[in-house]
Amino acid sequence: MDLVRNTPEAVLKDVFGYDAFRSAQGEIIDGLIAGKDAVVIMPTGAGKSLCYQIPALIRPGVCIVISPLIALMDDQVAAARSFGMRATALNSAQEFDSTIAAENALESGALDLLFVAPERANLPSFHELISRCDVALIAIDEAHCVSQWGHDFRPDYRQLGPLLDMLRGVPRVALTATADSRTQIDIAEQLGIAQDRLFVSGFDRPNITYQVGLKNNPMQQLRRFLAAQEDGAAGIVYCQTRNRVDEVAKALATDGHTALPYHAGLEPEIRARNQSRFLREDGIIMVATVAFGMGINKPDVRFVAHLDLPKTIEAYYQETGRAGRDDLPATAWMVYGGSDVAQARRFILQSDADETQKKLELSRLNALISYCETADCRLEPLLSYFGERYKGPCTACDNCLSPPEQIDITVDMQKLLSAAIRTGEVYGFHYLVDVLRGQAGEKAVRFGHDQLKLYGIGAKEPKSYWLSVANVALAKKYLVENDKGFGGLKLTPAGWDAIKGAIPLTMRKERLEAGSKKKLRKAAVGDLPLDAQALFTSLKAWRLGEAKAQDVPAFVIFGDATLKAIAVHKPQSEAELLEISGVGAKKIERYGTQLLSEIKSA
Question: How far is residue 286 from each of residues 235, 250, 281, 304, 489, measured CA to CA in Å?
Answer without folding.
Answer: 6, 11, 12, 10, 36
